[in-house]
Specification:
By secondary structure, the chain is of the alpha/beta class. It is built from 19 helices and 30 strands. The strands form 8 sheets. Strands 12-11-8-6-7-14-15-23 form an 8-stranded mixed sheet, with helices on both faces. Strands 5-4-17-16-18-19-20 form a 7-stranded mixed sheet, sandwiched between helices. Strand 18, helix 13 (about 350-355) and strand 19 (about 370-375) form a beta-alpha-beta unit. The longest helix is centred in the N-terminal third of the chain and has 17 residues, at about 100-115. The structure holds 5'-O-[(S)-butoxy(hydroxy)phosphoryl]adenosine (WT7). 5'-O-[(S)-butoxy(hydroxy)phosphoryl]adenosine binds near residues 254, 300, 378, 510 and 521. 5'-O-[(S)-butoxy(hydroxy)phosphoryl]adenosine binds near residues 406, 494 and 507.
Length: about 650
């Protein structure tokens, strides 16, 4: 596999960028010509951001799995596609070559078909990080079913909400998942979710933990039994379904500033081209390199840079089932040495947490195979950046700080390893095809820099890139409102950013009511809804505050009316409620019981004040003159946890 579109110098980057902006059709058309199409496109790009309508490679026909699997079989059949490292280092690892993976994907695609799944059907996948998760994802894509992967940390209630929203009639899950010392009973969570989802026709359960499960007659079947059936039927091949370029490939739910997660939809062709292009260029992947992205496939990072980007490039992708700190905090480094990992892509929160264990876990680890390091998910603080650079990269590995979102499908702003310069805390330059714009509240371009020549504003993108969000599932108007209506003719990211005079960007964080906790996006409204479900809670307000490891922590102000039990009990009950409604990732780090919340005369909670108090600020709370009852603020300040 060679990548004629891989950028090899700074000049080539500038040249590519220029072309991508001046003649996007030629630029992306040339790149796309290196992929496998059943039919070529009639036009490269048609768009407007008012509807919004974004169509890439209109008229083209393809199947992404033919690009990720079949097209590699002539030359890379015996190359490892997936290397899988189990949770427990004592257990054997697995290697699936491209030939193996192709075979298994076709096999499971036949299982799906045999269970009634058809093109366009939504299949919910709720599994731990085992190769069968990647196989299930690709098997859906093989037959044109739309996968909706749900991270294993979400609760039954969250799953049910997503199943209903997507009207998903098929589920693929596991008996359980191993994560560190924990054993998560996935099937049992699914059973709880399905109590209110009678429309689900089939649950396919893959064996992993041997946790006892209840298999419901007529609904639940075992993965392994279904594979046997396929073999008995002699179904060994599975032709790929021919898809339209703009057919949906998957839905992935993500939080916004409202209480209800949105089903972000990505389309087959554009997403394929863009994840491949960014994978090959940002990491400067060379054939044979071992790529280790530590994310979970339940998040967009796993979709794009464990599965689709690497596999479409014929790369070797490493999948890790466990957690960075078990059996000890040297686990990542052990894995890097064991498989001679060349590219390590992880989150700042993981780096900060490992930093906290000191240098002990790094002792005796060579890490000499590493060539490129990457970060994603949240701003990286300089201390963590330098630690990563010195102790992991040994000052020899460029660090790419990749800024992007579930909605963008792939990286938008990032340096390219060894090609464009890196700078601690800065995502740096836009990738080819990406046209950022900083605007003020009214959507006016920021043209005035501060005394250091730095521009500051809300980050928007002016034109589509191939992996632009296409719609929010079942509700296009919601997509328009959320991303394309704040500022006319711009995609609004929800992030604030700085730009220096050389055009480098630094992402400063969300400017909406969305938190970024350990690189996971959580809407404050969602957490408030969950807290308010608790019988003893009258009202609540949730804000973020700086957290040493998680980046942001969750601070909840709660008005409770209960006289039953002491505060510490209610606190535990609230945590339990949030775990039930959303999942453990949304549990508040701090809960402060208050008598009232600071509100304006029209009843709006003034979060700005609550944020300041949570950050530890007591003096400069800004303008409080519009408060209905300023006394509330003093009460809250005096009771701060
Ligand atoms: C939000 C998107 C992209 C996959 C993981 C998260 C923040 C992401 C960076 C970065 C600063 C970053 C932004 C963005 N973010 N990458 N390199 N530097 N902030 O995906 O859950 O869709 O969250 O994560 O705030 O909007 P997501």
């Amino acid at each position: 596999m060679s990548y004629p579109y891989q950028i090899k110098s700074l000049e080539a980057y500038h040249e590519a960028y220029k072309q991508s902006v001046e003649t996007p059709d030629n630029f992306w058309g040339d790149i796309a010509s290196h992929f496998f199409w059943r039919r070529k496109w009639d036009s490269v790009l048609e768009w407007n951001f008012t509807e919004p309508k974004v169509e890439w490679f209109k008229g083209a026909r393809l199947n992404i799995t033919e690009n990720c699997l079949d097209r590699h079989l002539d030359t890379l059949a015996n190359r490892p596609a997936i290397i899988w490292e189990p949770n427990d280092p004592a257990e054997h690892h697995r290697v699936l070559t491209y030939k193996d993976l192709h075979y298994k994907v076709c096999q499971f695609a036949n299982v799906l078909k045999n269970n009634g799944v058809k093109k366009g059907d939504r299949v919910c996948i709720y599994m731990g990080m085992i190769p069968e998760l990647a196989i299930a994802v690709l098997a859906c894509a093989r037959i044109g079913a739309i996968h909706s992967v749900i991270f294993g940390g979400f609760s039954a209630q969250s799953i049910a909400d997503r199943l209903i929203d997507a009207n998903a009639e098929y589920i693929v899950t596991c008996d359980g998942a191993f994560r560190g010392q924990k054993d998560i009973p996935l099937k049992s969570v699914i059973d709880d979710a399905l109590i209110g989802c009678r429309f689900v026709k089939r649950v396919i359960v893959c064996t992993r933990t041997r946790t006892p499960v209840s298999m419901i007659k007529g609904r639940d079947v075992w993965w392994e039994d279904e594979i046997k059936k396929i073999e008995t039927l002699g179904m060994t091949t599975c032709p790929a379904e021919e898809m339209d370029a703009e057919d949906p490939l998957f839905i992935l739910y993500t939080s916004g500033s409202t209480g209800k997660p949105k089903g972000v939809v990505h389309a087959c062709a554009g997403y394929m081209i863009y994840t491949n292009y960014t994978f090959v260029n940002v990491f400067q992947y060379k054939p044979g390199d071992i790529h280790f992205c530590t994310a979970d496939i339940g998040w967009i990072t796993g979709h794009s840079y464990i599965v689709y980007g690497p596999l479409s490039a014929g790369a070797t992708t490493l999948m890790f089932e466990g957690v960075p700190t078990w059996p000890d905090a040297g686990r990542f480094w052990e894995i890097v040495d064991k498989y001679k990992v060349n590219i390590l892509y992880t989150a700042p929160t993981a780096i900060r947490s490992l930093m906290g264990f000191g240098l002990g876990p790094l002792q005796g680890k060579k890490l000499s195979s590493l060539k490129v390091l990457g970060t994603v998910g949240e701003p990286i603080n300089e201390e963590a950046w330098h630690w990563y650079d010195e102790h992991v990269g040994k000052k020899k590995c460029p660090i790419v700080d990749t800024w992007w979102q579930t909605e963008t499908g792939g990286m938008l702003i990032s340096n390219m390893a060894g090609i464009t310069p890196s700078r601690p805390g800065w995502a740096t330059l836009p990738l080819p095809g990406v046209q950022p714009l900083l605007v003020d509240e009214n959507g006016k371009e920021i043209t005035e820099a501060d005394e250091d020549g730095v521009f500051k504003g809300n980050l928007c993108i002016q034109a589509p890139w191939p992996a632009t969000i296409r719609t929010t599932y079942g509700d296009h108007e919601r997509c328009r409102k959320n991303y394309f209506s704040t500022y006319p003719n711009l995609y609004f990211t929800g992030d604030g950013a700085l730009k220096d005079k050389d055009g480098n960007y630094r992402i400063t964080g969300r400017v909406d009511d969305v938190l970024n906790v350990s690189g996971h996006r959580i809407g404050t409204a969602e957490v408030e809804n969950a807290i308010n479900m608790h019988a003893g809670v009258v009202e609540s307000a949730v804000v973020g505050y700086p957290h040493e490891i998680k980046g942001q922590g969750i601070y909840a102000y709660v008005i409770s009316q209960t006289t039953h039990g002491d505060e510490s009990l209610i606190r535990k009950d609230i945590l339990q409620t949030v775990t039930r409604i959303i999942g453990p990732i949304a549990k508040p780090d701090k809960i402060q019981f208050v008598k009232g919340l600071p509100k304006t005369r029209s009843g709006k909670i003034m979060r700005r004040i609550l944020r300041k108090i949570a950050e530890g600020e007591t003096e400069n709370l800004g303008d409080t003159s519009t408060l209905l009852d300023p006394g509330v603020v003093d009460d809250i300040k005096s009771g701060k946890v």
